[in-house]
Amino acid sequence: MKLDANQVIGGNAKVVRSINRSGILNIIRELQPISRIAISKITGLNKSTVSSIVSELFSEGLIYEEMVQDQNVGRNPLHLRLKLGTNYVGAINLDSVVSRVAIVDIDGSILDKDKINTQQENPENFIKDCVDLLMALKIKNGIERFNGIGISVAGIVDISRQVIVNAPNIGWKEFYVGDLIRSQVGDELIIKVGNFKRNIILPPTLINYSIKSAKFEEERLRIGFRQ
Q1: Helix 177-185 vs helix 123-140: angle between axes, to the nearest 10 degrees?
Q2: Got the DSSP string for 99-139?
Q3: What is the CATH number of domain 5-82?
Q4: With contact defined as beta carbons under 8 Å apart, do 69 and 94 qualify?
């Protein structure tokens, strides 16, 4: 499972780091609980790179540490595990007759699922129906927000544009599914003040922005964003 740099075709430091990050997260998923040293040995990455990426995963709430009891060492080591129950993803699988939606945890386990008859004639309305069904599962299971929504379909897709180029099983071509889902779902801003909590759907123009500041002014909460 070593991450061989010779297998990477081109790319820059950001791409390489993204590949390393995905590899480390997958190793934790498959081999948890696992130590940083073990990850370094498996991947061939140096310890500082592993520690840096693990720190990122911690800050994003994707993993946590647990102390492992070991009588053979002076100090009990800390091992890494995925943080389940807080990092859910919505999944939509498009098929010719019946399509399926599901809520999936970070380890790949399915929390809940449902199905819907595929409507090939009107892709826009059908995707909206799939998203509505997915949101109903989200509410049913008491989930605050998804970390993302993924779509699988047999055919050719352009990941960078989030476009279904050609899906012969359902007869869709050049369908901008990513834009459609973003326009329907938007992004959520969760505000918590004491016992008060409110989820606000952000407009599409703010989806790629992060929060810069938040403060009360004249009994109003003013939130600043940055790209």
Answers
A1: 40
A2: EEEEEE-TTS-EEEEEEEE---S-HHHHHHHHHHHHHHHHH
A3: 1.10.10.10
A4: no
The 3-state DSSP class for residue 23 equals helix
Record the tokens describing residue 123, joined without a space.
């892709």
Asked whether the beta carbons of 53 and 17 are under 8 A apart, the reply is yes
* CATH 3.30.420.40 domain extents, the chain: 89-185
Confidence at residue 9, expressed as pLDDT on a 0 to 100 scale: 40
In CATH terms, is domain 89-185 a member of 3.30.420.40?
yes
Residue, of 212 and 54, whose pLDDT is higher = 54
Q: State yes or no: pLDDT of 4 exceeds 70.
A: no
Contact assessment for residue 63 and residue 57, using Cβ atoms and an 8 Å cutoff: yes
CATH 1.10.10.10 in the chain, residue ranges: 5-82
Higher pLDDT, 225 or 117: 117
For residues 20 and 43, the answer to whether their CB atoms sit within 8 Å is yes
- Is the alpha carbon torsion for 105, 109, 112, 117 positive or negative? positive
Whole-angstrom Cα distance, residue 227 to residue 218?
26
